[in-house]
Give the backbone structure.
Amino acid sequence: MIRILRFTCIAALCTAGPVLAQDAAPTTDPAPGEIAAPDGSKAFGFEPYVGIMGGWESFDRRVGYGVPETPLGGKKLQGALVQGVLGANVPLGPVFIGAEGNVAKGVDGAIDWEYGVAGRFGFRAGDSGLFYGKVGYQWVNFDRFGNNSRDYHAISYGIGVEAGPKDIGLQGITGSAGFRLRAEVSTFGPARSFRPMLGVVTHF
């Protein structure tokens, strides 16, 4: 599971490189003496955003490792998800920090609801690209165990990219409102799940 997670993360970052490269042209002149973003655009700001994502999560089925344990021969705990996110970014020159909350609903399979919070940190690629890591806390409720099943919870980890190439009308992290595409891979606990997600984020 850990090897698969690492491979997918590396592939996602490599694939996003050509898209993010489109943001190389300066967009806003920084103030004299101000530390600029990589493309010379505005260095600082505050960006609240909302987004919607879809994806899949599959939990480890090995006895003693799953969340909860899945007996040998039992059905794997996995399913499709639709997720909403709400958060804010604070650009700081070539880097940024931020925080967000999420709520996800299982639409197929064993997962009922998920919800959590996370902090994000990473690097800016121009004024509309982001490479980031995130650490947070996530709760999961499994539909397979009925309406009265308890929530399972653990620290979550993830990495991802966002890109908003301006040549198709998408805007930057310190510019006017617009959309960015987001691709993310995360895990529940110490690599106890594999959770690729893809979606759209809009800021204002």
Q: What stands out?
A: The mean pLDDT is 79.
